[in-house]
Amino acid sequence: MTPTVSASARMLNKVPQATLIFWVIKIMSTTVGETGADYLAVHVGLGTAVTGAIMVSLLAAALALQARTRRYVPWIYWLTVLLVSIVGTQLTDFLTDKLEVSLYASTAAFAVALSATFALWHAFEGTLSIRTIVTRRREGFYWLAILLTFALGTAAGDLATEALGLGFDWGVVAFGSLIAATALARRLGAGAVLTFWVAYVLTRPLGAALGDLLSQSREYGGLGFGTVVTSLVFLSVIVALVAFVTFNAAPAGAARTAQRA
């Protein structure tokens, strides 16, 4: 059973509904995380360590801002997701490039860490549903799980597209097909919580493969648009969608306030 939460400890659910816009922004955030991290580390010349330190600091600030709110604020939430995406990418890249941990090992390690997080979350809260993120502890479990899904997705995506030689184009096809299969399983009666988290993990390697396909040179199997163009285009779409969600939600919130009054 789900543990009872006192009224004083509750806040409004701070995670948006998993609509089509949610998944589009999530995949594009993943792509921007992949291309943005590569741009800062390689093209700007900051290196993995400096880029990672900067992004961890920004993520800490975003999480602190997110923690201060007591409801879902679109721009704060998606800024945090974007930074988690970058940090998750950097974490996997650091293990692979600097510590020379194999992608097989890092994929397995992140899978175990995510499973342990889910086990603890469920043990303490009795649910893994994103519709019940109404306490600080649940929010903490949620963001830890999100970070690990990005790290796991990065490792699994790199394992498939690079180590196993799937390539960027077939990586998009493969992970897109797995997400479609997950959506079909949901429609056929699979659990909403399970299918959500499976899809959340899979959208990370899909977004990464898509980002690499668009940004990498033709010599390496990409389309050659570059990291700058790819990041800016996707970031512009993210900003537009977040603005749409923000302004679209405002009238609904005002209507609810008027009804209560």
From TrEMBL:
The chain crosses the membrane at residues 40-65, 72-91, 103-121, 141-160, 166-185, 192-211, 223-250. Keywords: Membrane, Transmembrane, Transmembrane helix. The keyword Nucleus does not apply. InterPro entries: DUF347. Pfam families: DUF347. It comes from the Bacteria. This is Membrane-anchored protein. It comes from Methylobacterium oryzae. The lineage of its organism: Bacteria, Pseudomonadati, Pseudomonadota, Alphaproteobacteria, Hyphomicrobiales.
